[in-house]
Amino acid sequence: MKKYDYEGGLDLMPGxxxxxxxxxxxxxxxxxAGGASAELGVNFPQPAAGVAQEIYDVHxxxxxxxxxxxxIVFAVLIYSLYYHRKSRGYPAxxxxxxxxxxxxxxxxxxxxxxxxxxxxAGSAQKTLEKIWVIPxxxxxxxxxxxxxxxxxxxxxxDHGIKIESRYVPKDQSGxxxxxxxxxxxxxxxxxxxxxxxxxADVNHAFWVPALGFKKDAISGYVxxxxxxxxxxxxxxxxxxxxxxxxxxxxxxxxxxxxxxxFQEWVRQQQQVKLAAAAEASxxxxxxxxxxMEKGQGLYNTKCAACHxxxxxxxxxxFPALKGSKVATGPIADHLNIVLxxxxxxxxxxxxxxxxxxxxxxxxxxxxxxxxxxxxxxQPATVKAAR
Length: 386
Known about the structure:
With 386 residues, this protein is an alpha+beta fold. It is built from 10 helices and 12 strands. It has helices spanning 13-40, 50-83, 100-132, 259-281, 288-302, 304-307, 325-328, 331-340, 355-367, 379-385, and strands spanning 4-5, 9-10, 141-148, 151-156, 161-165, 185-188, 192-199, 204-208, 213-217, 223-228, 233-238, 251-257.
């Protein structure tokens, strides 16, 4: 029997048997490689919410289909290259396009590809609808997420709590590099949570892969998403919109806890808020040392992102405070810029801070980094300047 027949095409049976064995071997190798890749951490992070699990499932379905198709295509390609090479006496087929498969492959192959696409799209469409459509008729816990340059503000609208979350330089060589924050977003498990996203300045984007969604935070708009966490743990994310110089230092950390632990955390935060409000509203006269100690902590969390811990700033966008005319000049001018910002620059008003917080920050800025102004700004002075 001839190896090749121009009219009848190829005698494929022996080759198909060998190809089947090759596909089986490749499948085993792919399964082993899949386990190895999971250990290497190259896949998506393990989901922590229902919608995230559905996204993960769609991703894995797509990868399985793509892997099977890749194995089949490569098996046919390798088989054809090896058994139909010129050195085995196979001349080029000049009439393949006249065979049944040659005529109908232009319909069959696109049809198969479309079928694969629709298989994936069907599952993906249901998941997308679930992500963007907020559950109706159910009690949801509302959390307002506000992006700032370059920190996050989380307001628990049902509990009267507001948290500021900022990057802290911790564990520079470990897993927390550019991922550590001073205050994580604490959320309870098995509770439907609605996130209301907006921005106080430029565009930002809230992205925690374990929660399953990414959402833009745009100034002047409120965008909704939701999630229901199904396990406890700490999950990291990042601002996913290029938002300026310190975009890379705008991490997100979500601490998922049980409902009981969350309620205890809420009680603690409310007590801290009441104590801080009582302290700030008192007419106490503060010593320079107390204001400097409090001011250093506040400056490092609220101001150092732009002006640096050393007070050197990031000129020209963020001027240095060390030796500056603002930090060594009249107190009234210094307070005016802190309270009202400076139009046309990145300096935003900080009038949402308490009188005590602003007094501590201004006192620190006027006496740190060899400024040595010697001034002590009291909360009453800030109150009068508002």
